[in-house]
Design brief:
By secondary structure, the protein is mainly alpha-helical. The protein has one domain. Helices cover 79% and strands 0% of the residues. The chain contains nine helices and no strands. Helix 3 crosses helix 5 (79-100) and helix 6 (112-134) packs antiparallel against helix 9. It is globular and about 55 Å long.
């Protein structure tokens, strides 16, 4: 049963959220509106692009060479930003490929609750993946709540799995409609 100290922590959290909690909230809202306007298939394309980009990025044999080239082009560019640019380029390239091949579905029957579920789990996955790949928590101070949800323990594994579970239930529902 919740006690007074639990309510005071919740009030403190809601009255002065940290930057990382605001970023997570904004990312979920932006993802939801993107899904509502672009459609569920395009939202799924972005999520699966990140799934595919992670092992490609982590095992890319020319990563250091590209980072050095980017550093020469733009002097103050840090290692983090150089790697982030390369990762985003891989995601964009994969997204273009997936949208033209696998995710050419119509968005006429998209339901808001399906897009919301995909937005929440997909955004959680992307944020957890970014923490995993780039060690953002070592670059900036992260709140204990965000750390617990996205970084600590087995959270990365669960964020990897959750979008797939949601997709399983959404596809299962599609067959009965």
């Amino acid at each position: 049963m919740p006690n007074i100290s639990d309510f005071s922590r919740i009030y403190q959290f809601l009255s002065s959220p940290t930057w990382d909690i605001l970023v997570v909230f904004f990312a979920v809202v932006a993802s939801f509106f993107y899904g509502m306007s672009a459609g569920k298939s395009k939202l799924l394309s972005v999520i699966f692009s990140v799934y595919l980009a992670m092992p490609l990025f982590e095992n890319f044999p020319y990563l250091n060479t590209l980072v050095n080239i980017l550093a020469k082009l733009q002097k103050p560019l840090s290692l983090f930003y150089s790697k982030a640019i390369i990762f985003v380029a891989i995601v964009v390239l994969l997204n273009l490929i997936l949208r033209r091949t696998l995710f050419r579905l119509s968005s006429r029957n998209d339901k808001w609750w399906q897009i919301l579920a995909i937005s929440i789990t997909g955004t959680g996955f992307v944020i957890s993946a970014l923490f995993h790949i780039f060690s953002i928590n070592q670059l900036a101070k992260v709140s204990p709540l965000v750390s617990q949800i996205f970084i600590e323990g087995n959270s990365f594994f669960w964020w990897l799995v959750l979008p797939l579970v949601v997709l399983f239930f959404i596809i299962g529902k599609r067959g009965t409609e």
